[in-house]
Amino acid sequence: MVRMSSLIRLGAAGAAILSLSLGAAADNGAASDPYAGAVARTVRGIFEYSRWPQPRNPLVLCVVGAAQHAGQLGNFRLVDGRQVVRRNVAAHVSALGGCDALYIGSIALTAQRQVTASVRGKGVLTIAESDPGSSSEAMFALTYKPGALSFRLNIDAVSRSGIKVDPRVLRVAKGGS
Amino acid sequence: MADKRQTQLPTLRLLLARVHLRLILFAVLLATASLMLSGALVIRNYMATNLRLAADTVAYSAEPAMVFESREAMLEAIDTVAGYPSVDRIELFDPQGKPLANWARPHGNPQGVVVRLLNSLMWPDPVLAPVSHSGEQIGEVRVYGNSGGILRFLVAALVIALSCIALSIIGTRILARHLQQGVIGPLEQVARIAHQVREQRAFEKRVPAAGIAEIDRLGQDFNALLAELQAWQAGMLSENAELKRRARHDELTGLGNRALFERTLGAAIAAGQQVALIHLDIDGFKQFNAAHGIESGDAALITVAERLRTILRGEDLAFRLGGDEFALLLMPAPEGERIDAVIDWIAVAMDDAFRLPDGQMTRVALTTGFARYPQDGISTGELLSKADSAMATDNSPDQDKESQGNK
Fold this sequence. Notes:
The complex is a heterodimer of chains A (177) and B (407). Chain A is α/β, with parallel strands linked by helices.
């Protein structure tokens, strides 16, 4: 796990050639992950534009497995007043009870698929941190470019999830499913 | 002088054309101006609605972009309305007033100055739309209007107005020509007739019917006036002729008087024409008058005049010079023997008796003498005195006649 994070940091250091602020962040180690702020902002945005079948407050955001960029992803408050509470859970299907949203960390693809399959149709929001091939079947998959964070939207997964996502989010997303 | 004034005065056709042109120009300009103004106002109102719509659209679709802080998505949101013709500039600000994204319509150089000027006049302030998320303002959209559309409308309206004016000018010309045929034509007819009447004294001319009530009435009055003038002139002419005739003719016998005789002979001499003058006298007229009375004397004079007239040829003329004195002018002058023959005819003609007013039958005889121009004299007086003296010398045969007449 340490090795992996250093690998990411190496990639980040490569990106630092283009971006001074990112370079400065890379020097400060894992605690100042260059994408951490963007990830927290993006997850929060996704929450803002998602509607659960039954309104809940607070919403429970479960970080599944080991996450690389969830450093700044803490408890936060949505604009409409709802609270979001972060909880770390193991990357196992049985550990997902009570979760309203899953932030799926950097775990194996098969494990990611198991997790997304287990919550399908149950009104649980799924965000995959590390899914470059878009094969996790999570509703949202984060994508990383040097200095910029974006996400893809899996419309098929969204429509099966039971959660309503504001269509305007489609415009912000990259490429779609 | 009259011609000069005529060229300076404008014709009725020109006046009518001018009035029409002014009227049409006024109407076209008024219509164009009001149409342009109302059109520009309507367009501006539509544009205002459009700008409001564009601002709201951008605010709505930029909201998630701002929540996600994605500049690309912000630009995309702006792009959705960037094509609107009424939009000139779109700017996106965060709540602190920091610009996040913007778009501006590119302007061509020569046209751009005008459009920018018009934009600043028509849209001095942008249309504002807050970007809010769940009731909280997270940014602001500012949309500036583009007046290129209004400019195009104004230019098109101006072009249409100019073509309307051009069409109107052509129309006025045609209208003026029609008016000339319909109104000015008949009027000119009246004017032409009046001119002819004045120039040629052609009082028999009449104005034809015009087909327009007013001008027809004018023409009728004019014709009536002409008829009066014609009658008046005819009367004056005949009166003049009568006066002239009276001045030159003897009242009693109807023959030319001494004045006409002298004028006629003078004219013939002036023309170099050969003339024979026969001078005649009634023998013993004083005694005849005394014996029978003045009325019978007049009857004798009338009878002599009638008989002299009967022997005249085409060109010959008879005159009563005064009292019992008559003269014949034979033109052209015949030979000497022919003159003698004429004198014999006169004697024969006088031979018949005639009835006096008191019923008595009688006859008179004439003493004759003649002179010829240019052989016997070259002036009227000379010829007359020559003929007179011939009458005095040549009276042996007349002596017989006189004695017969006095019997």
